Amino acid sequence: MSVFGVEKLNFVLLWPILSLFFWAVALLLLSIFTKLSRNFYTSVSVIALLGNLLLLGMFNGFKLSDAGAFFGLFISDNYAIFAQIIIVVFSIFYLIMDMKEKKVEFFPLFLFMIACLILMVSSTNLIVIFLALEGSSLALYTLIALRRTHNAISSSIKYFTIAAVGAGFFAFACAFVYLNTKSLDLLDLVNSEHISNPILLSAGVMFLVIIGIKLSIAPFHFWLKDVYYGAHATFVAFISVVPKIAMIIVVLRIFSALGGGVKFEYIVALLAIFSMLIASIVALVQNDVKKMLAYSSVTHSSFILAAIISEINLNFQDGGILYLMAISALFLYWIVFAFANYGLFLALSLFKESSYESFAGLFNKRPVLSIIIALLILCIAGIPPFGVFWGKLLILASILTSGYYIIVFAIAISSMIMLYAYLKILIYIFFKKSDCFQGEQLYLRQKIILCFCLIGSLCTGIFAFVK
């Protein structure tokens, strides 16, 4: 008979997350009793995130092996470690590059949100995922509204309303899973004898609602355009990358559990195809760059959803090297996209307006900035030899291997349509004439981050492909 001991809880695996909760509470209490500068809160938040990486290396050792804590409620596996590194690194990038004055409440909420996102990717228990998802979402709604403009508040309320509906679907899906398996752990669902039960198909469709909302997949994307337009450009860069990588890991876990017997991948494939085609067409008629990039984000999220379906199919076909290569391609694609997206929105933050006309004559006034924006746009568009192209090429190869030829055709059509929307920005920058350009200058640390983003978006994909 085994004796229960505290050491069996493996409490040290939780220290990276608990450290962020500690710093969040400390900053919140500090803001009550003292008045300190924004640079102080930014520095402490960056230190807290760097400490998270340090603790991850000390107690996880960045080991590519599974470990668990609290009887399996918290796990540390490849998905969790890779996602945590991406979440923390790009959160640090955001804090460094954002120079706008913020309320002191922003930083505790930000650290709380990051801790919840890390918890979300580090569990296979549906209740823990649900609590972490809602905790991070509530913090994100508040952070969007803290800008206190009419557009920011209205977009935050719209996001909250739509996501609340998605949370209800998630709760119903959890209930259906428990009804059939008597467990809320996705690992138990993989080995369940009820995996073919049609009720689990209904659960999968309900999961798809919250997935569509959080990944901004059409027709669940209506909140996205308002958030992109209402939030500050640098915060939009964060929203479009960090919360989505957490949701991508959740999707991988859920689809891996349901994909073996429920066979609802055709529903997901049709949704992904519909989303990427509709979003790319609507992007053509937008008169605002940030709104166009919102629909661009929808297409990229649709690519990821289609890639996940093919990867799950490869896993159940052979579970070998092809699946590992497909997962690597997915992470590569999102990392390169994150670099390019951060750099582009950092450049957009210099403009007082985001209409296409505000970019007219930019090359005559700021030629270096114009060339950087052009390179980043070409990278996001997937033009060779830039990084996103290689990531997309590897994803298309994995989709072809899994046999979803229609998805490959849809991605090609969507990419061609989106290319016209991207090139519209370049036309205004290089060929339109205007004397009304109004823009700000980059600070030193913003220039450093912009250089990192440019190098990352141009070189990461090529390096990984050659390697």
Q: Could you characterize the architecture of this molecule?
A:
- By secondary structure, the protein is an all-alpha fold.
- The protein is about 75% helix and about 0% strand.
- The chain contains 19 helices and 2 strands.
- The chain has a two-stranded antiparallel ribbon with strand order 1-2.
- β1 and β2 (about 75) form a beta hairpin.
- α3 packs antiparallel against α10.
- The longest helix is centred in the middle third of the chain and has 32 residues, at about 150-180.
- The chain is globular, with a radius of gyration of 22 Å.
- NDH-1 is composed of 14 different subunits. Subunits NuoA, H, J, K, L, M, N constitute the membrane sector of the complex.
- It catalyses: a quinone + NADH + 5 H(+)(in) = a quinol + NAD(+) + 4 H(+)(out).
- Its EC number is 7.1.1.-.
- Keywords: Cell membrane, Membrane, NAD, Quinone, Translocase, Transmembrane, Transmembrane helix, Transport, Ubiquinone.
- InterPro entries: NADH-Q_OxRdtase_suN/2, ND/Mrp_TM.
